[in-house]
Specification:
Shape: globular
Order of helices and strands: EHEHHHEHEHHEH
Strand content: 5-15%
Helix content: 55-70%
Structural class: alpha/beta
Radius of gyration: 15 Å
Bound molecules: shikimate-3-phosphate
Number of strands: 5
Largest sheet: 5 strands, parallel
Number of helices: 8
């Protein structure tokens, strides 16, 4: 039986939003981008929330947005890269769905996020080093949270979504 919701986790640049949209349409589920939910509810962009209220405040909003999403069914949810930083979030996702980790090598993440400017955690001089540090600290959290893992290196979002669909069908046949 397919899980109630499907949660995509992984680093900034892993492709959660693009793969999530594609996967939702393949599975005929509704797509939800958690960062967009937070922005809409706060009336502020993610950048503004970090700048004006700080990361802890953002994590609180992220936790409440996830809790509300988890009350629905039939969703594909693209989470923010830091969702795994609170064990409570992982528990919430686990108890209400299947967790798909979109994995990518550090150099691939660097390539995908370069040229983007909307990620507050990477607004530092050595953002590539910062991204690698964040990846190293979160890797075990992503791995232990995941029900299944999709390697996204060298794949388009559509290809990763197709692979996720196949793995989900196998796991939840
Ligand atoms: C964050 C990732 C961002 C966003 C926020 C914090 C993180 O989402 O939630 O900037 O802690 O990794 P994306 O993973 O979609 O970039």
């Amino acid at each position: 039986m397919q899980p109630d919701n499907i949660y995509l986790i992984g680093m900034m640049g892993a492709g959660k939003s693009a793969v999530g949209k594609s996967l939702a349409s393949l599975l005929q589920r509704k797509f939800v981008d958690l960062d967009s939910v937070i922005e809409k509810e706060a009336g502020l962009s993610i950048e503004q929330i970090f700048a004006e209220k700080g990361e802890d405040f953002f994590r609180g909003l992220e936790n409440s947005a996830l809790t509300r999403c988890a009350e629905s069914k039939g969703l594909v949810v693209a989470t923010g890269g830091g969702i795994v930083s609170r064990p409570e979030n992982v528990e919430r996702m686990r108890s209400t769905g299947g967790i798909v980790y979109l994995q990518a090598a550090a150099h691939v993440l660097v390539e995908r996020v370069s040229g983007t400017t909307h990620r507050p955690l990477l607004k530092v001089e050595n953002w590539q080093g910062r991204l690698r540090e964040i990846l190293e600290s979160r890797r075990p959290l992503y791995e232990s949270a995941a029900d299944l893992t999709v390697l996204t290196d060298g794949k388009t979002a559509a290809q990763s979504a197709m692979l996720a669909k196949e793995l989900l069908e196998k796991k939840y046949a």
